[in-house]
Specification:
By secondary structure, the chain is mostly helical. The protein has five helices and three strands, in the order H-E-H-E-H-H-E-H.
C-alpha cells in the first residue's frame, strides 16, 4: 500500500542519510519507485552510537543533549546545530525537483521541529521518543 502511494506520488528525487537503517528504508522506496537513492550526510542523525563507549553512556549523553540544546556530546553537534543542518538541506532543495522523498532519523527531525516551533508546540512525549 505504501509502495503504491509512493509510486503515485511520482517522486523525482530520493535522498537518504548514509546511516544503515535509513539506507535500507531508502532502498525499499527506490525499488518500488525506480528513483535512485542519493546519499547525503546532512541527513544523518546528530549522534550515532558506534560502540566507542557504553550504550548507557550514549543514552545519558543523548538525554543531556536533548535537555540542553547547545550541549555538544563527544565533539558531535548539538541538537540545535543538527536542526539547522537539516533545515539547510531542505532549503537547498531545488523547487523543480519536487516531489522528493527524504529518509532521515527521528532525532534530527525532532531537532528541526524544536528549531522551527517551540518544545511546548510539539506533541506530548515526542522528546522522549526521538531516539
Amino acid at each position: 500500500m505504501t509502495a503504491r502511494w509512493l509510486c503515485s506520488a511520482r517522486l523525482r528525487a530520493l535522498y537518504s542519510s548514509p546511516l544503515r537503517r535509513a539506507r535500507e528504508t531508502a532502498g525499499v522506496i527506490a525499488a518500488a519507485t525506480g528513483v535512485p537513492v542519493q546519499l547525503d550526510a546532512r541527513l544523518r542523525e546528530r549522534m550515532n552510537w558506534n560502540g566507542g563507549y557504553s550504550y548507557e553512556d550514549f543514552l545519558a549523553e543523548w538525554a543531556h543533549a536533548t535537555r540542553d540544546r547547545d550541549f555538544e556530546p563527544h565533539g558531535d553537534e548539538s541538537s540545535r546545530q543538527a536542526g539547522h543542518r537539516l533545515r539547510a538541506f531542505l532549503a537547498a532543495l531545488p523547487a523543480r525537483a519536487a516531489p522528493v522523498g527524504v529518509v532521515t532519523h527521528g532525532g534530527i527531525t525532532t531537532d528541526l521541529l524544536r528549531n522551527l516551533l517551540s518544545d511546548q508546540a510539539l506533541p506530548a512525549g515526542l522528546l522522549e521518543s526521538a531516539w
